[in-house]
Hints:
The structure holds two protein chains of two kinds.
Chain A: H1 2-22, H2 25-28, E1 42-47, H3 55-68, E2 73-77, H4 85-89, H5 99-103, H6 109-112, E3 114-115, E4 122-125, H7 138-150, E5 155-159, H8 166-173, E6 177-182, H9 186-199, H10 204-208, E7 214-222, H11 224-228, H12 235-242, E8 246-251, H13 255-262, H14 273-285, H15 302-307
Parallel strand pairs in A: 1-5, 1-6, 2-4, 2-5, 6-7, 7-8
Antiparallel strand pairs in A: 3-4
Helix pairs in contact in A: 3-14
Chain B: H1 3-8, H2 14-33, H3 38-52, E1 60-67, E2 70-77
Antiparallel strand pairs in B: 1-2
Bound molecules: adenosine-5'-diphosphate and magnesium ion.
Amino acid sequence: xxxxxxxxxxxxxxxxxxxxxxxxxxxxxxxxxxxxxxxxxxxxxxxxxxxxxxxxxxxxxxxxxxxxxxxxxxxxxxxxxxxxxxxxxxxxxxxxxxxxxxxxxxxxxxxxxxxxxxxxxxxxxxxxxxxxxxxxxxxxxxxxxxxxxxxxxxxxxxxxxxxxxxxxxxxxxxxxxxxxxxxxxxxxxxxxxxxxxxxxxxxxxxxxxxxxxxxxxxxxxxxxxxxxxxxxxxxxxxxxxxxxxxxxxxxxxxxxxxxxxxxxxxxxxxxxxxxxxxxxxxxxxxxxxxxxxxxxxxxxxxxxxxxxx
Amino acid sequence: xxxxxxxxxxxxxxxxxxxxxxxxxxxxxxxxxxxxxxxxxxxxxxxxxxxxxxxxxxxxxxxxxxxxxxxxxxxxxxxxxxxxxx
Lengths: 309, 86
Ligand SMILES: Nc1ncnc2c1ncn2[C@@H]1O[C@H](COP(=O)(O)OP(=O)(O)O)[C@@H](O)[C@H]1O
Ligand SMILES: [Mg+2]
């Protein structure tokens, strides 16, 4: 009985390990990305292991936040088969060509990039809805990234699918920086640790022996009230377990749902705490040193306090 | 804490979560750098030991460490009854 549990926990890890290991072998000695010190483009993967923790919400908001500051940004949906980023960005009806079409040469990258209607320097590359798991390959991904680099993009944000299999592996493979999205909850923290392990061993930078991928934790769906009552792990707890620096804490909020209903990245709902927390995260990405906010429960009225919530 | 929360009396579980994670993350990190056969080795060891003593899977620890320049594979098996109960 106990043994069963044990083996189901461990065998997918072993499988993923070998699947991930075989994929990039051909590229490790290929010419490589326009890497090197002179490249100005930064490739950022938003990853997590676990699904539903807030990767797509985060990718959309960070991309908008950077573009608002005049950066030229491409945000790419690596979640082949599902495609969510276009909905969160509100451009689902403008998708004609997608990432897989570009890789297969059905269209040019320019044809597939969707220019955002709100921000001039923001472009979206949608995921394909194909069921073919092998639609993406490391060569193709590299060609697309190289072309974006040559086009002078400042940032490329890669929205990773859940899991630690091929799609997640490809999304992180060429990253310079990784934002590991984590909820203060046991399975999410454990999966994040697995992803941190992959970032330090199965990426282009790791394989080439280059400088490490920069890693940051982004805590999302954080509930200061539940942390205060001891029901939820705190930022400090998660940071201590994973041993990685925290680039932001995003509170749990109903504003995220209403933003995705409307197809407006939540960072653009400027009066919301979530938007401000994402703005802070963007500023930290750009090198500012800001204290974390929204770690305390907001002050509530007398009745709300009496009767909890 | 509000009144309702007080009466609901959900025990604070965050510290339990943290402690469990500390252990499992440490264990997975030692296995990660190590050879692929560690999980299987652990499983087979468990099968063998179970023939003689009735132990739980979590009583078996397999650790890969370093000592004086070489890798050391360490096993420990906590036998039933030998554990001091808190
Ligand atoms: N800070 C938050 N507060 C409340 N709900 C959130 C928050 N972040 C994400 N969500 C919700 O969680 C769900 C999963 O988010 P999503 O960004 O799609 O995660 P992922 O891409 O990691 O699967 C969505 O329904 C989203 O609205
Ligand atoms: Mg997603």
